[in-house]
Amino acid sequence: MNSYRVGIVGLSWITNDPAGPGTHSVLGDAMPGTHLSGMARIPQVQVVAGCDISPEACDLFLERWDSTWPGLLVFDDYNVMLREVPLDIVAIATPDDLHGPVLKAAVDAGVNAIFCEKPISTHTDEVDEMIAAVEAAGIVVNVNHTRRWNPTWVAAREALRSGRIGDLVTITGKIGGERAMLWRNDSHVIDIMNYFAEANPIWVVGELEAAHANYGTRYHGDGGRDASLEPAANAYWAYDSGIRAFLSAMKSAVSILEVELIGSKGIITVGDGQAWLREQTESGVVTSPILPGYSMVGMQAAVVDLIDALENGTEPQSPPHEARKAVAIIEGILGSQASGNNRFDIG
Ligand SMILES: NC(=O)c1ccc[n+]([C@@H]2O[C@H](COP(=O)([O-])OP(=O)(O)OC[C@H]3O[C@@H](n4cnc5c(N)ncnc54)[C@H](O)[C@@H]3O)[C@@H](O)[C@H]2O)c1
Which atom of ligand 1 is the closest one to the Cα of 185? Predict the structure, then answer.
């Protein structure tokens, strides 16, 4: 069995938190929901180093994980870490607008694979530079749009692919909550809509929330911390396959993320933890649950997927060209808003 030396850049809770304690006497710990708790379940992974500009984050990383991977090194500069520590895989969990420089430095340092947080970037021009660097180096990248490895969402796509609702016609995505921010969190629902569409978005009509009516066409958030710096939006877009998509991404008190797939013969509704199939039968509309059939979730599965791609040449579930689509749709929404809510072509 191969072993992979891993370095982590960005040591906030999304990488650093342990899996929650078990509340059941038999079933063990909660499923891991962070980079390191997921990696701790993968025997091939040997985390050797972490980097953060915050000394407190570095201390917590050592305190929590040095017993799992003894001898961990910490750095406050990822360029130094990449220069001094030979690494096979780098995980990137810096703020939303700081993935590109870290990815390019990791490629230049000669790593074999990268697990990059979402959104892959806040601009498509930077995504294109990232894709060019990755392709030139021939390395594998998985972008952490986590639902692509969530058993409920995977089961819903399997039901769709097996023809249970006929041809997919329309996708409706809803996201709410106080942090329904275009890049930070709406990118999740837009990406999972792309996951179901399996096609390329070609144009979009969008409208930003009133408070950001004059936002402009370039990202100017703070990396995803301050929700007031990123707009919410409603949008309608087309895929080159003919599928149409509606997005309601509005800041609200209730935190939801749901997708409805309307097909020629039925409807699938998916949320975190449940999916339902509505089929037209001779005796009327029948609703039944779509049951997830897998036991590995989220970031553990994403890293296993990355290693599988490395070892067997498979395409991972969330390659950069897929993650680019969400950034392009978000930019298209800005472009549409700036042009008086007209249809905006997506390149
Ligand atoms: N996939 C998911 O479900 C999910 C969930 C939460 C966050 N995220 C993503 O993870 C990333 C991090 O999110 P966050 O809320 O923890 O962000 P954050 O702003 O708290 O930053 C993450 C960490 O990066 C560190 N950092 C900043 N600049 C750095 C640099 N130059 N070098 C090294 N470290 C640096 C910060 O000190 C912090 O500890 C974001 O891209 C976010 O969208 C994904």
Answer: 43
DSSP 242: S
Using a cut of 0.85, tell me whether the model's pTM lies above it: yes
170 & 254 share domain: yes
Do residues 283 and 156 both lie within one domain?
Answer: yes
Q: What is the domain count for the chain?
A: 2
Look up the domain containing 80 and give its range.
4-145+297-317
Please check whether residues 253 and 332 belong to one and the same domain.
yes
User: What is the Å distance from ligand 1's center to 203 Cα?
Assistant: 30
Q: Are residues 78 and 214 in the same domain?
A: no
CATH number of the domain where residue 211 is located: 3.30.360.10
Tens of pLDDT, residues 141-195: 999 999 999 999 999 999 999 999 999 999 999 999 999 999 999 999 999 999 9
**Ligand 1 midpoint to CA 143 (Å):** 14
Q: Which of 5, 16, 8 is nearest to 91 (CA)?
A: 8
Question: 337: CA distance to ligand 1 center in Å?
Answer: 28
Query: Is there a single domain that holds both residue 95 and residue 157?
Result: no
Do the beta carbons of residue 141 and residue 116 sit within 8 Å? yes
* Residues 133 and 178 placed together within one structural domain of the fold: no
Task: Mention every residue, 6+ apart, whose C-beta is less than 8 A from residue 122.
Answer: 96, 97, 183, 219, 221, 327
CA 44 – ligand 1 centroid, Å? 25
- Ligand 1 atom with minimal separation from the 99 CA: 41
Identify which of 12, 79, 88, 77 has the alpha carbon closest to the alpha carbon of residue 45.
88
Same domain, 103 and 160: no
Question: pLDDT tens across 243-285, in order?
Answer: 999 999 999 999 999 999 999 999 999 999 899 999 988 999 9
Report d(CA 255, CA 113) in Å as an integer: 33
First to last CA, the chain: 42
Same domain, 128 and 176: no
Report the pocket of ligand 1 as residue ranges, CB < 6 Å.
9-12, 14, 51-54, 57, 78, 93-96, 98, 117-118, 144, 146, 184, 223-225
